[in-house]
Amino acid sequence: MTPTLRDPIRLIARGAKAAAPGGPATAPDTRGVVYAYHKALCDDRGPVNLLGVSFFWLLWGLKYDYDRTIKNLDACVGADVVRMLCCVGQPDDSWSDRIIDPNWSDFSDVLEHALELLQARGMRALVTIFGDATSAVPDEASRAAHVDRVCTVLNRYPAAVVNVGVSNEGIGFPDDGYAEILRHTERVRATTPFLVSSVCGLEDAPATVYAARTERKIEGDGGVWEHTEQPYDLRNTELVASDEEPIGPQSSVAEDDDPLRNTTHAVCAWLCRAPLYVYHCGAGIRGGGAADVERGRYANFYDQPSFGPTLAMLCAARDYLPGDVAQWSRISHSDPKHEGEYPFATGPLQPFDPSEWFLKTYANRSTDGRFVCWFSKVEKDVPLVACSAMAFHVFDLRGGVAYVELAPGETYPLTVRGAALLVGTL
After folding, report:
1. Can you give the pLDDT at residue 127?
2. Domains in the chain: ranges and CATH
């Protein structure tokens, strides 16, 4: 009998279902407080892979441009998480027309309403308290008071928060502000049940999540595909990781608008101990602020042509993956010591030029015989020779699924172009 996706292969699907790129998504299912366990993120369902969207201007929008903000929030349904800022901007900087001020008289009400809106849509918040420690909070005491204000509201909605970060990049803090940020991080850990993010790029002692900043790289052997393997190094982090500001459409430094490449990047993150990937695009930064208009960024998610197709593809890829895949062993096809552990014979995969064949492949394998293989920048047929009897599904990330059974020594020619995900059992 041909196995189904949810029987012998035992896929643990999470969140929204998106049947086709550009098609409608449904709200994901949110259950309980998120916690970290053995390099995975978990809630009451067990381990989960989470998909986020940068929505930095959410609180500003709910206060000053409500209807448009709701329309943008609805465009994000299907994602599990939105990343918001709780303090950013001052009159003389690039956020001057998108200021989120801790001293708003109704700040707590606005934040609370944001959490209610997210919870109603089956989403959670990734909260960055200080996008910028602005002049509105000029000293440590005022910043500590804002940390307490935010945490008080968040504690009323424990299932609507995935994790909390004190500072995005240390912007606005004094030169010796790193120690202060750590004190605030300890404060959040002591007063909330939530995971707490590190300052970007640092695995800080009080933190429970490593807030990674993968390189926005579109040069090298892989060319524009190069960034799709940037999360690979996250496999060695001590903490569970989140890929919070990767390359995306209209991102700074470098950008990539291609749904397939951005989804391939997300899959790499989910496999490499970063079970939270945040889709970062221009519309989610200032939402039409003057600084973004000058750069040509879209003001709304629903105006950005690639947003819908990319979100649908990301949702589908997330749902293909077992929720506990971050806990499995990672196996390289290029390391001879993994011969017999990598699901396919490694010899036929060795002699390749990354600029002509495929950029990267490796596998995750569980102790109970499940495996996932990931291929990026596939431009020729790839001969996959089974090391043992196996059954797997081949997912073309652009759409399409094939079911394959192989006897030991039998070859399957992988004909998918671009990127592929194989999920199966040995």
Report:
1. 98
2. 35-327 (3.20.20.80), 329-425 (2.60.40)
Residue 189: which residues within 8 A CB-CB, separation 6 or more? 196, 206, 208
Contact 352, 379 (CB under 8 A): no
Strand partners, 46: 43
Give the pLDDT band of residue 12 (cuts 50, 70, 90): very low
| Residue 4 clears pLDDT 60, i.e. is over it | no
Residue 124 · residue 34 · CB < 8 Å: yes
pLDDT number for residue 202: 65
Q: Are strands 46-48 and 50-54 parallel, antiparallel or unpaired?
A: unpaired
Q: Report the sign of the C-alpha dihedral through residues 112, 114, 117, 123, in that order.
A: negative
Region of 223 (left: φ > 0; alpha: ψ -120 to 50; beta: rest) is: left
| This model's pTM is above 0.85 | yes
Q: Cα–chain-centroid distance for residue 318?
A: 10
Q: How many residues appear in the chain? A: 426
CA–CA separation, 37 and 31 (whole Å): 16
Return all residues near 67 (Cβ < 8 A) that are at least 6 apart: none
CA distance 44 to 24: 26
- Residue 183: CB atoms within 10 A of its CB come to 15
> Side chain identity at 409, as an amino acid letter?
G
In sequence order, the 6+-apart residues with CB closer than 8 A to the CB of 161 are: 34, 115, 124, 125, 126, 127, 154, 194
Using DSSP's 3-state secondary structure scheme, residue 181 falls into: helix
Q: Let me know: does 207 contact 163? Beta carbons within 8 Å.
A: no
Alpha carbon of 147 to those of 48, 152, 197: distances in Å? 28, 9, 14
Give residue for tokens 């991080």.
185
Q: Which of 296-305, 348-357, 393-402 has the lowest mean pLDDT?
A: 348-357
Q: String of b and e for 248-261 (b: at least 16 CB within 10 Å)? A: bbbbeeebbbbbbb
- The pLDDT tens digits for 89-122 are 999 999 999 999 999 999 999 999 999 999 999 9
pLDDT digits (tens, 9 = 90+) for 324-354: 999 999 887 776 666 678 899 888 877 555 5
pLDDT on residue 311: 97
Determine whether 308 is exposed, middle or buried from the number of CB atoms within 10 Å of its CB (0-12, 13-18, 19+): buried
Alpha carbons within 13 angstroms on the beta-carbon side of residue 144 total: 11
Taking 80 as the threshold, does the pLDDT of residue 197 lie above it? Answer: yes
Amino acid making up residue 310: T
Rounded mean pLDDT, 228-241: 85
